[in-house]
């Protein structure tokens, strides 16, 4: 069964690019336009991904960060990476958060880099996660 | 139907003495503790003075007789014992007893004021309540109470002072029965009784009135100063908030400018990665050029945000840390090696580690920008040398970055750290130069107290020397 990856980004070109790269490398991708869509989808256990790729500035300045906090609380073991145009410039907004848990990929999407990071993160978390809620 | 009331009144930011009085702004415990310690030290000097006076009384009986001062006086010793004992008690309460409602800095200060006023009253009684300036020392306590307490509390201190001074006067006058003008000074002239009563009354009324006036003036001044202090504190908070809002705005603008470029470059990467089928070498070449220009623009956009953040950090200093210079160099090389490899430039490095105190991210900015510049303005297949060394003679540490690139002309050298400066020669060599990199270095160097020396010969190369003062021994921890 392919591993499931959720991707949240308001830019359709970025969504399309990530979907193409990941599906062609054997992953199942659920793309979401907004963080709210993704959080709502998590109510369905079938939609819970193995890894989430979050954008920071979707809907609002820090919607991605809020999603990250919510995700971390609800699914503490779920891997998540940020993919943002701002790269490590958003780090000052990560107050008191584990640097180990936070992984930031700077756009543009580089297929080899993206795949390498996702494989590395999924290797840390091989089994499907259960909600702690 | 939605309805919102908008208001842009500046009322909240206006200076309001009445409000300050109502709030009765008190000083923070930190300030009180700091001053309590100062008072304790000051009191030890008073104790020393009193002991010296006691020694004088014991050893200079002839001089005392000549001055008309009575012998066998022991009050300086008694007062110095009281002051020393209570001083130890204040220190014990401050440093060795858990803070509580009854052991707060404010309570400590109250105890000090009351004990000091009792001791001062004893001194005034013995030295002379109407014949010497001793009673004027009450004013010092009133002024201090106005500074450290609220207006109401300082009024209570005033009342205590008035009561104590009045008791001293009344007790000395024996309910207006004749006493000497000073118990310490011997009676050489017996004054007229009614004249003495008049003088006691005159001192009582005039000095107590003076105490009241001093209390009024100083307490009002204190309220004004505290209100201004509060106003300043609020203004600082507003500046901080404005800085935060400005940074968020900068991030938003940066994001909006860079996001379309990222989408374009992501699609280029998709094609280059073979996800859209085979493409001709001509198309690949065109895509590479588009990507290169896009990358330059992305760098410029991020550098502008970095520049704004660094400028802001001058006003809000970040926490300094102990940093290993070798680690910073290793990170910079790790990051820039792919850039060097792409142009077949060799990155040679020999590092002698030393530790410095600085802002880690800003040291990285300095080194990355200087090495990145060296790579940018080097010719292909050249080499860039990075060395770090400690100069034990003057306790400085240096990082030297040397390239064999296009160099900098003498007339351009003084301007290279200016914002958006780039020389025509530099633009010919690197069309995507933003002119921001070295201004980032300048601000970061200023924030970290670092000097930078630049020497260059056109067409032969440039050497940047980053000079760190006050370096730490290996492993950090200067102490």
TrEMBL record, chain A:
It comes from the Bacteria. Keywords: Phosphoprotein. The modification 4-aspartylphosphate is found at residue 55. InterPro entries: Bact_response_regulator (IPR050595), CheY-like_superfamily (IPR011006), Sig_transdc_resp-reg_receiver (IPR001789). SUPFAM superfamilies: CheY-like. Gene3D superfamilies: 3.40.50.2300. Transmembrane segments: none annotated. GO terms for biological process: phosphorelay signal transduction system. Residues 4-122 form the Response regulatory domain. It holds the Pfam family Response_reg. This is Response regulator receiver protein. It comes from Nitrosomonas mobilis.
Automatic annotation (TrEMBL), chain B:
Residues 252-472 form the Histidine kinase domain. It comes from the Bacteria. This is histidine kinase. It comes from Nitrosomonas mobilis. The chain crosses the membrane at residues 36-57, 77-97, 109-128, 134-152, 157-180, 200-218. GO terms for molecular function: phosphoprotein phosphatase activity; phosphorelay sensor kinase activity. GO terms for cellular component: plasma membrane. Gene3D superfamilies: 1.10.287.130, Histidine kinase-like ATPase, C-terminal domain. Its EC number is 2.7.13.3. InterPro entries: BphY/WalK/GraS-like (IPR050351), HATPase_C_sf (IPR036890), HATPase_dom (IPR003594), His_kinase_dom (IPR005467), HisK_dim/P_dom (IPR003661), HisK_dim/P_sf (IPR036097). Pfam families: HATPase_c. Keywords: Kinase, Membrane, Phosphoprotein, Transferase, Transmembrane, Transmembrane helix, Two-component regulatory system. The keyword Transmembrane applies.
């Amino acid at each position: 069964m392919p591993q499931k990856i959720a991707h949240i980004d308001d830019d359709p070109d970025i969504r399309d690019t990530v979907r193409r790269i990941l599906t062609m490398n054997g992953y199942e991708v659920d793309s979401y336009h907004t963080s709210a869509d993704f959080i709502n989808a998590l109510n369905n256990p079938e939609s819970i991904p193995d890894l989430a790729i979050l954008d920071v500035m979707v809907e609002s300045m820090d919607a991605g960060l809020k999603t990250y906090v919510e995700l971390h609380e609800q699914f503490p073991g779920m891997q998540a990476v940020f993919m943002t145009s701002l790269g490590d410039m958003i780090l000052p907004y990560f107050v008191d958060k584990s640097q180990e848990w936070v992984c930031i990929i700077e756009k543009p999407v580089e297929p080899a880099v993206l795949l390498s990071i996702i494989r590395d993160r999924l290797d840390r978390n091989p089994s499907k996660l259960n909600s702690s809620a | 139907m939605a309805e919102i009331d908008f208001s842009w009144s500046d009322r909240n930011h206006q200076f309001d003495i009445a409000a300050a009085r109502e709030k009765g702004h008190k000083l923070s415990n930190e300030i009180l503790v700091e001053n309590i310690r100062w008072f304790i030290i000051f009191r030890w000097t008073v104790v020393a003075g009193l002991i010296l006076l006691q020694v004088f009384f014991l050893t200079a009986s002839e001089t005392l007789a000549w001055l008309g001062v009575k012998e066998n006086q022991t009050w300086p010793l008694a007062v110095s014992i009281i002051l020393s004992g209570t001083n130890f008690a204040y220190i014990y309460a401050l440093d060795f007893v858990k803070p509580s409602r009854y052991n707060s800095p404010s309570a400590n200060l109250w105890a000090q004021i009351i004990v000091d006023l009792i001791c001062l009253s004893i001194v005034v009684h013995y030295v002379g309540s109407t014949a010497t300036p001793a009673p004027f020392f009450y004013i010092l306590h009133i002024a201090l109470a106005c500074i450290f307490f609220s207006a109401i509390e300082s009024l209570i201190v005033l009342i205590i002072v008035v009561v104590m001074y009045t008791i001293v006067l009344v007790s000395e006058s024996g309910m207006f029965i004749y006493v000497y003008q000073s118990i310490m000074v011997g009676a050489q002239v017996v004054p007229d009784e009614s004249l003495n009563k008049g003088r006691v009354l005159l001192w009582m009324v005039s000095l107590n009135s003076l105490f009241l006036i001093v209390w009024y003036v100083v307490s009002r001044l204190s309220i004004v100063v505290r209100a201004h202090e509060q106003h300043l504190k609020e203004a600082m908070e507003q500046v901080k908030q404005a800085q935060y809002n400005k940074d968020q705005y900068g991030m938003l603008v940066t994001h909006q400018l860079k996001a379309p470029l990222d989408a374009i470059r992501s699609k280029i990467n998709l094609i280059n990665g073979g996800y859209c089928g085979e493409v001709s070498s001509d198309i690949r070449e065109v895509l590479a050029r588009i990507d290169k220009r896009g990358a330059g623009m992305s760098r410029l956009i991020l550098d502008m945000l970095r520049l704004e953040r660094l400028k802001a950090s001058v006003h809000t200093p970040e926490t300094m840390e102990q940093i290993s210079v070798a680690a910073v160099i290793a990170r910079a090389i790790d990051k820039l090696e792919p850039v060097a490899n792409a142009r077949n430039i060799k990155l040679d490095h020999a590092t002698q580690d030393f530790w410095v105190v600085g802002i880690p991210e800003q040291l990285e900015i300095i080194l990355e920008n200087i090495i990145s510049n060296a790579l940018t303005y080097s010719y292909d297949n050249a080499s860039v040398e990075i060395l770090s060394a400690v100069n034990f003679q003057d306790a400085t540490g240096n990082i030297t970055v040397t390239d064999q690139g296009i160099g900098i002309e003498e007339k351009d050298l003084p301007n290279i750290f200016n914002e958006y400066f780039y020389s025509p020669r530099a633009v010919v060599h690197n069309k995507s130069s933003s002119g921001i990199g070295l201004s980032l270095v300048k601000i970061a160097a200023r924030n970290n107290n670092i000097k930078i020396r630049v020497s260059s010969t056109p067409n032969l190369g440039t050497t940047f020397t980053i000079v760190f003062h006050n370096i730490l021994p290996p492993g950090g921890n200067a102490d």
